[in-house]
Amino acid sequence: MDKRRDVARDLARIYQTLPTESLDRLSEILVPMKFAKGEQILKEGEVCRYMYYVYRGFVRQYYFKNGKDLTEHFSYEGKMVICIESFFKQEPTRLLVEAQENTWIYGLPYLALEELSKEDYNIAVFYRKILEVSLIDSQIKADLQRFESAQDRYRRLIANQPEIFRRAALNQIASFLQMTPETLSRVRAQIIE
Questions:
Q1: Beta-strand relationship, 58-65 and 96-99
Q2: Pick from 114, 111, 140: which is nearest to 127 by CA?
Q3: Are strands 31-35 and 103-109 parallel, antiparallel or unpaired?
Q4: What digits encode the pLDDT tens for the residues 139-192?
Q5: Which of 41, 39, 40, 44 minimizes the C-alpha distance to 92?
Q6: 6-21 burial code (b ≥16 CB/10 A, e <16)
Q7: Sign of the four-CA dihedral 125, 127, 130, 133
Q8: In Å, what is the CA distance from 94 to each residue of 65, 103, 166?
Protein backbone atom coordinates (compact mmCIF):
# COMPACT_ATOMS: atom_id res chain seq x y z
CA MET A 1 0.00 0.00 0.00
CA ASP A 2 1.28 3.48 -0.91
CA LYS A 3 1.63 5.50 2.29
CA ARG A 4 2.94 8.66 0.64
CA ARG A 5 -0.23 10.64 1.38
CA ASP A 6 -0.05 9.66 5.09
CA VAL A 7 3.63 10.61 5.21
CA ALA A 8 2.92 13.97 3.54
CA ARG A 9 0.28 14.60 6.23
CA ASP A 10 2.78 13.66 8.96
CA LEU A 11 5.33 16.06 7.51
CA ALA A 12 2.76 18.85 7.30
CA ARG A 13 1.80 18.25 10.94
CA ILE A 14 5.42 18.48 12.04
CA TYR A 15 6.65 21.38 9.91
CA GLN A 16 3.87 23.42 8.29
CA THR A 17 0.18 22.84 7.69
CA LEU A 18 -0.56 22.51 3.97
CA PRO A 19 -3.79 22.93 1.99
CA THR A 20 -5.08 19.81 0.22
CA GLU A 21 -3.66 20.70 -3.20
CA SER A 22 -0.17 21.32 -1.79
CA LEU A 23 -0.39 18.14 0.28
CA ASP A 24 -1.24 16.18 -2.87
CA ARG A 25 1.70 17.69 -4.72
CA LEU A 26 4.07 16.93 -1.85
CA SER A 27 2.91 13.31 -1.64
CA GLU A 28 3.59 12.86 -5.37
CA ILE A 29 7.30 13.67 -5.04
CA LEU A 30 8.00 11.51 -1.96
CA VAL A 31 10.25 8.53 -2.70
CA PRO A 32 9.81 5.47 -0.44
CA MET A 33 13.00 3.59 0.45
CA LYS A 34 13.75 0.56 2.62
CA PHE A 35 17.10 -0.22 4.21
CA ALA A 36 18.21 -3.25 6.20
CA LYS A 37 20.09 -2.87 9.47
CA GLY A 38 23.69 -1.89 8.72
CA GLU A 39 22.95 -0.77 5.17
CA GLN A 40 24.35 2.53 3.95
CA ILE A 41 21.69 5.09 3.04
CA LEU A 42 24.30 7.61 1.90
CA LYS A 43 27.98 6.87 1.41
CA GLU A 44 30.94 9.19 1.71
CA GLY A 45 31.59 10.75 -1.69
CA GLU A 46 27.97 10.48 -2.86
CA VAL A 47 25.75 13.49 -3.46
CA CYS A 48 22.87 13.92 -1.00
CA ARG A 49 19.94 14.09 -3.42
CA TYR A 50 17.24 13.81 -0.74
CA MET A 51 16.11 15.10 2.59
CA TYR A 52 15.37 11.82 4.36
CA TYR A 53 12.28 11.55 6.58
CA VAL A 54 12.47 8.53 8.88
CA TYR A 55 9.07 6.85 8.83
CA ARG A 56 10.22 3.76 10.77
CA GLY A 57 13.60 2.82 12.10
CA PHE A 58 16.74 4.41 13.47
CA VAL A 59 19.61 5.96 11.50
CA ARG A 60 22.96 7.45 12.32
CA GLN A 61 24.83 10.18 10.45
CA TYR A 62 28.59 10.03 11.00
CA TYR A 63 32.02 10.74 9.57
CA PHE A 64 35.60 9.58 9.91
CA LYS A 65 38.35 11.75 11.38
CA ASN A 66 41.86 10.55 12.16
CA GLY A 67 40.69 6.97 11.65
CA LYS A 68 37.84 7.36 14.15
CA ASP A 69 34.13 6.95 13.46
CA LEU A 70 32.36 10.04 14.93
CA THR A 71 28.59 10.34 15.26
CA GLU A 72 27.12 13.61 14.05
CA HIS A 73 23.39 12.94 14.36
CA PHE A 74 20.75 10.32 15.15
CA SER A 75 17.30 10.22 13.57
CA TYR A 76 14.28 8.04 14.22
CA GLU A 77 10.54 8.07 13.58
CA GLY A 78 9.30 11.55 12.72
CA LYS A 79 12.78 13.05 12.28
CA MET A 80 14.76 14.20 9.25
CA VAL A 81 18.29 13.48 8.09
CA ILE A 82 19.98 15.95 5.76
CA CYS A 83 23.59 16.36 4.72
CA ILE A 84 22.96 20.07 4.31
CA GLU A 85 26.05 21.18 2.40
CA SER A 86 25.89 18.29 -0.05
CA PHE A 87 22.13 18.71 -0.46
CA PHE A 88 22.27 22.41 -1.33
CA LYS A 89 25.46 22.38 -3.38
CA GLN A 90 24.65 19.00 -4.96
CA GLU A 91 28.26 18.02 -4.37
CA PRO A 92 29.75 14.90 -2.75
CA THR A 93 29.45 14.59 1.02
CA ARG A 94 32.01 13.57 3.60
CA LEU A 95 29.22 12.31 5.86
CA LEU A 96 27.70 8.84 5.88
CA VAL A 97 24.16 7.83 6.81
CA GLU A 98 23.53 4.26 7.96
CA ALA A 99 20.45 2.32 9.05
CA GLN A 100 20.96 1.11 12.62
CA GLU A 101 17.75 -0.94 12.38
CA ASN A 102 15.58 -2.06 9.49
CA THR A 103 14.39 1.35 8.31
CA TRP A 104 11.73 2.89 6.07
CA ILE A 105 12.54 6.34 4.77
CA TYR A 106 10.72 8.75 2.51
CA GLY A 107 13.00 10.97 0.47
CA LEU A 108 12.18 14.51 -0.56
CA PRO A 109 14.22 14.88 -3.78
CA TYR A 110 16.24 18.07 -4.12
CA LEU A 111 15.28 18.91 -7.71
CA ALA A 112 11.57 18.14 -7.32
CA LEU A 113 11.38 20.05 -4.03
CA GLU A 114 13.12 23.09 -5.54
CA GLU A 115 10.75 23.10 -8.53
CA LEU A 116 7.67 22.58 -6.41
CA SER A 117 8.77 25.43 -4.11
CA LYS A 118 8.92 27.80 -7.08
CA GLU A 119 5.38 26.83 -8.12
CA ASP A 120 3.65 26.55 -4.74
CA TYR A 121 4.10 29.17 -2.01
CA ASN A 122 2.81 26.77 0.67
CA ILE A 123 5.46 24.21 -0.26
CA ALA A 124 8.12 26.95 -0.19
CA VAL A 125 7.12 27.84 3.39
CA PHE A 126 7.04 24.13 4.33
CA TYR A 127 10.55 23.67 2.84
CA ARG A 128 11.83 26.71 4.75
CA LYS A 129 10.37 25.36 8.01
CA ILE A 130 12.25 22.07 7.59
CA LEU A 131 15.46 24.02 7.06
CA GLU A 132 14.78 26.28 10.05
CA VAL A 133 14.34 23.29 12.35
CA SER A 134 17.52 21.69 10.99
CA LEU A 135 19.56 24.86 11.44
CA ILE A 136 18.22 25.50 14.94
CA ASP A 137 19.01 21.89 15.93
CA SER A 138 22.56 22.33 14.58
CA GLN A 139 22.99 25.58 16.52
CA ILE A 140 21.70 24.01 19.74
CA LYS A 141 24.12 21.10 19.35
CA ALA A 142 27.04 23.47 18.71
CA ASP A 143 26.09 25.59 21.74
CA LEU A 144 25.88 22.51 23.96
CA GLN A 145 29.41 21.55 22.98
CA ARG A 146 30.69 25.07 23.64
CA PHE A 147 28.85 25.99 26.81
CA GLU A 148 27.75 22.86 28.71
CA SER A 149 29.69 20.34 30.74
CA ALA A 150 29.77 16.66 29.82
CA GLN A 151 27.28 15.94 32.62
CA ASP A 152 24.91 18.65 31.40
CA ARG A 153 25.09 17.36 27.81
CA TYR A 154 24.33 13.83 29.02
CA ARG A 155 21.39 14.99 31.17
CA ARG A 156 19.96 17.08 28.32
CA LEU A 157 20.16 14.15 25.89
CA ILE A 158 18.40 11.84 28.35
CA ALA A 159 15.70 14.45 28.97
CA ASN A 160 15.14 15.44 25.32
CA GLN A 161 15.92 12.29 23.34
CA PRO A 162 15.78 9.21 25.59
CA GLU A 163 15.06 7.16 22.45
CA ILE A 164 18.75 7.39 21.56
CA PHE A 165 19.79 5.56 24.74
CA ARG A 166 17.43 2.70 23.93
CA ARG A 167 18.60 2.28 20.34
CA ALA A 168 22.23 3.40 19.91
CA ALA A 169 25.48 1.80 21.02
CA LEU A 170 27.21 3.54 23.94
CA ASN A 171 30.35 4.29 21.90
CA GLN A 172 28.14 6.05 19.32
CA ILE A 173 26.41 8.06 22.06
CA ALA A 174 29.79 9.00 23.52
CA SER A 175 31.05 10.31 20.18
CA PHE A 176 27.75 12.15 19.60
CA LEU A 177 28.23 13.87 22.98
CA GLN A 178 31.88 14.50 22.03
CA MET A 179 33.37 12.47 24.82
CA THR A 180 35.28 9.23 25.08
CA PRO A 181 33.45 6.05 26.12
CA GLU A 182 35.41 6.20 29.40
CA THR A 183 34.19 9.76 30.08
CA LEU A 184 30.65 8.69 29.30
CA SER A 185 30.96 5.82 31.80
CA ARG A 186 32.25 8.22 34.49
CA VAL A 187 29.47 10.74 33.77
CA ARG A 188 26.82 8.02 33.96
CA ALA A 189 28.26 6.71 37.24
CA GLN A 190 28.33 10.22 38.78
CA ILE A 191 24.74 10.91 37.78
CA ILE A 192 23.54 7.57 39.16
CA GLU A 193 25.20 8.24 42.56
A1: antiparallel
A2: 114
A3: antiparallel
A4: 888 887 788 888 888 998 889 899 999 999 999 999 999 999 999 989 888 877
A5: 44
A6: ebbbbbbeebbebeee
A7: negative
A8: 10, 22, 27
